[in-house]
Amino acid sequence: MLVSSNVYFPQQRSLVARRLYQTIALAAAFFLIEYVETQLIEILFIIFAGILLAMFLAGVSQELNEDVYVSRPLALLLTIVGLPGLLIGLWKLAGPDISE
Questions:
Q1: pLDDT score of 35
Q2: C-beta atoms surrounding 58 within 10 Å
Q3: Could you give the CA distance from residue 57 to residue 64 in angstroms, rounded to a whole number?
Q4: What domain range is 78 assigned to?
Q5: Distance between CA 29 and CA 24 in Å, rounded?
Q6: Is 5 a domain residue?
Q7: The pLDDT value given to residue 2
Q8: How many domains does the chain divide into?
Q9: Quick one: 79 exposed, middle or buried, by C-beta within 10 A (0-12, 13-18, 19+)?
Q10: Is residue 4 included in any domain, yes or no?
Q11: Per-residue pLDDT of the chain (100 residues; tens, 9 = 90+)
Q12: Residue 2 domain-assigned?
């Protein structure tokens, strides 16, 4: 005996529609991952540059510490102040010659 009820059974979507939705969702996920990756790669490059700069400053200040026998904080301070000063001095000396 069949009893009729007012329960609504939604129709199933066709296989083509499901594949289309899956493809759209997959493409959207791919583009979202690529966007996050491009934003993350800039942060990773900045972190990498910071690590390289720290290693460079530590190496120069260690050499200064061993050769001149100054404390490590003072050697680091001299390195931080001296290297930009050296670059600016070289720029001041070589800049006019290069521009001529």
A1: 92
A2: 15
A3: 10
A4: 15-99
A5: 9
A6: no
A7: 53
A8: 1
A9: buried
A10: no
A11: 555 556 655 666 676 677 888 899 999 999 999 999 888 998 999 999 999 999 999 998 888 888 888 888 888 898 899 988 988 988 888 777 666 6
A12: no
User: What is the signed CA dihedral for 17, 20, 25, 27, rounded to 10 degrees?
Assistant: 180
Tokens describing residue 8: 């609504």
pTM over 0.85: no
Give the DSSP letter string of the chain.
Answer: ---------PPPPPHHHHHHHHHHHHHHHHHHHHHHHHHHHHHHHHHHHHHHHHHHHHHHHHHHHHHH---HHHHHHHHHHHHHHHHHHHHHHHHHHHH-
The residue assigned the tokens 């979507």 is: 13
In a domain, 48, yes or no: yes
Residue 74 one-letter amino acid: L
Residue positions counted in the chain:
100
Which residue is it, tokens 């005996």? 1
